[in-house]
Amino acid sequence: MKWVDEGYEMFVFTDKFIQNNEPAPENLRREVSRADMLVVVAVRNQDSVNWVQMNSQKIPNIFCFDSSPVLQNKLGGSVVHTEIEGNILNKAIEIVRGKNEKESTEIIKTVSDAWGRHNSDDIRFCLLVIINAYIKPVPILKNLRSKGLSTLNCMIKNCGSEVLNCLLDPNCRKALQCLNSCSPTDQVCSYRCIASYESPYLEAFSLCVLQKHNCLELDADIPDKPYVPPLMKFRGEDLTHETAEDLFVGWLGNLDWSWRVVAGQNPAYDQFPCQYQLFYRGKAKGSFWYEPVFQVRSLEGDMLWRRRKYRVKRAGVAGTFYFTVLDNGVVSKEFWTIVDVCDDLSWGLFHYKGAARAAGQSYTGAVLVSPDGSYPSEREKQRLVHALERCGIKEWELFVVDNGSCSNAPLGIPEGSTLHCNIKVGDLRSISN
Q: Which residues form the VDE lipocalin domain (predicted)?
């Protein structure tokens, strides 16, 4: 939460002291008494339920997840009744008084959908949505606020043909309908819609409405935090820009790809099946490119291959890079860091943070890679955990990628591309077990 705003403070406690019949920690009652929001997770013990009820009466916002049905949810000081008490995930049958019914319903749906994905980014998103709606505005969620007629006027004035072509195309129309069902800041929902129904018409629509004319009046910057230090040495030598690029190129040349993604931290972008990374030097002097190839399970159940193309530029420090991509009509800019790569290239960890400014979305993530998509051996665990900690990530936050059925991947790089400059890559048999 501190990465979002230094003014936010979250106090986390368990109910062990209640179950052990011990007095509450000295500062607990004080923290609860001044809380703006209480999030209750998996509290079912009756003594714990009683304690929560007794000490939370003055807290205006209470969200309960997977907890006792006796516990009540509150938003803005008013009780929200659900079909099953103690669980905000269930349909609300009485909307908060004093707030627009549609807005309150949308808040509950947004929080419920995000919580249901059970990952740290979405848990943080849940908390920020509630803060934004009932405590104080959260700047990074400003895009939850609709612009109304100004958006429509901008689209009609500047992008009439692109809008019409999209509405007449079944795939593009499905994409818009799908996106309309997502909260504007729900990147998991939005990107799944885009990847499922991408088409030239959707790209033209997004390029005009979002990228060229910013009809939604959105904005986003690459996050400043976390600061992730890059790898300093490789095989005993100081890391240089050339060697860092070689590490990205990885196994390409020996294999048909640079790396395969083992696991990733971002729920919107890192969970797709069968992720291949292709890094290579282009024909033009100093040019460097990245092309991820991955599968998407569409919302209609089909498995589809997707491919993107990023321009890569060196940043000021070796091991750090700027990536730029045009993804379905929207430009995304990212800052990547090589966090660690094993000397035998048996695994690597890359961190990124980026923003699709015209879409109003900022994001961070990390990908764990290896030559064949398998998880690093147990003997590498301590080093891997340490690398993840430098990113502010715990190992349990990673989504393991499904690499089970990846035939006919559309790989290959442009003719005339070059690969390694400084390092030599062995073969898979050179990796010690």
A: 153-403
